[in-house]
Specification:
By secondary structure, the chain is mainly α. Helices cover about 80% and strands about 0% of the residues. It is globular, with a radius of gyration of 20 Å.
Length: about 300
């Protein structure tokens, strides 16, 4: 791979997919309001159960059955996807728990940290290169996050777990030789066993299952399959088509939306440090976008 293809400023054809994924993820807390009475473990189980048939249907429509079977026969692919399924399941569980327990801003912080982790993984593991403007953006974002860390120690585990689980998930998905849809199908298949055990446990519990008792709640739980599958598919497409560092900075869209929802919808108290962090991170994003546009202009402008 040549140096230019590894450069941080190469957004590539995956940008629309990345924007779509992060927009859906940013609005996810609004969906979780609909299922707030469902225990986090049970809901994560239902997410896996209802995501799988959607994936299988799309696999059939796109005639990707041969690719799916080939992935199942590849030991390295299966081991990698087994690890990524654990990471994404952990990410789902912590995120749902955080939103249900009024820690929306802590979840937002986790996804502000995650792009910085992506940059670190992109440079140290994948050998991607950062220019001067990109380092400036990283520095500003890091400063903003450090201010938030100082005022969020009680919920720091939420933020760090979300950042680490999703950062490592994206790295694994970028490196495994399987398409976005077959990969997600295998991940949800792997999660189906634990999901069935969870459903059985709640069915035998005193409270019983949340699914099947109320029509609207059951419909909202089923909707979780589509809400889960769509952004993950878009993210997997973007991760394979974009520099990982570039993907990391596009990710600031989702926590910004979650941040605003935490303030205006969930009415969490906003501290001065959080305001400062918000401003610094958006300055970092502005520098990143400026750099992308400058490189695109040089690439397409005819030579003098």
């Amino acid at each position: 791979m040549n140096t230019s293809s590894q450069h941080f400023g190469s957004a590539g054809p995956g940008l629309p997919a990345a924007l779509g994924a992060y927009l859906i993820w940013g609005l996810l807390p609004l969906y979780l309001i609909l299922v707030k009475t469902v225990p986090p473990f049970e809901f994560v189980g239902w997410r896996a159960i209802w995501t799988l048939p959607i994936c299988l249907l799309i696999v059939a429509l796109r005639r990707q059955g041969a690719e799916l079977r080939a992935a199942f026969r590849n030991r390295r692919v299966m081991l990698t996807l087994a690890a990524s399924s654990v990471l994404i399941g952990t990410n789902w569980l912590v995120y749902v728990w955080a939103v249900q327990n009024g820690h929306v801003l802590a979840a937002s912080l986790g996804y502000y940290i995650n792009p910085l982790l992506n940059v670190l993984l992109g440079t140290l593991v994948l050998g991607e290169k950062l220019g001067t403007r990109q380092w400036l953006a990283v520095g500003l974002a890091g400063l903003g996050v450090s201010l938030l860390l100082g005022g969020a120690l009680a919920t720091l585990w939420i933020s760090l777990t979300l950042a680490l689980s999703f950062g490592l998930y994206g790295l694994l998905r970028k490196q495994v030789a399987v398409g976005a849809l077959p990969g997600l199908t295998i991940e949800t298949t792997i999660l189906l066993g634990p999901a069935a055990i969870i459903a059985f446990y709640y069915a035998k519990s005193a409270a019983g299952l949340s699914f099947g008792n109320d029509l609207w709640l059951s419909a909202a739980i089923i909707l979780g399959g589509a809400v889960t599958a769509a952004p993950l598919l878009l993210f997997a497409v973007a991760a394979r088509r974009m520099d990982y560092s570039s993907l990391g900075f596009v990710q600031f869209l989702a926590p910004t939306i979650v941040f605003l929802l935490g303030i205006f919808v969930f009415e969490e108290k906003l501290q001065p440090a959080q305001i400062t962090c918000f401003v610094l991170i958006w300055c970092a994003v502005a520098i990143f976008v400026w750099d992308i546009m400058a490189k695109r202009k040089r690439r397409f402008d005819p030579p003098a």
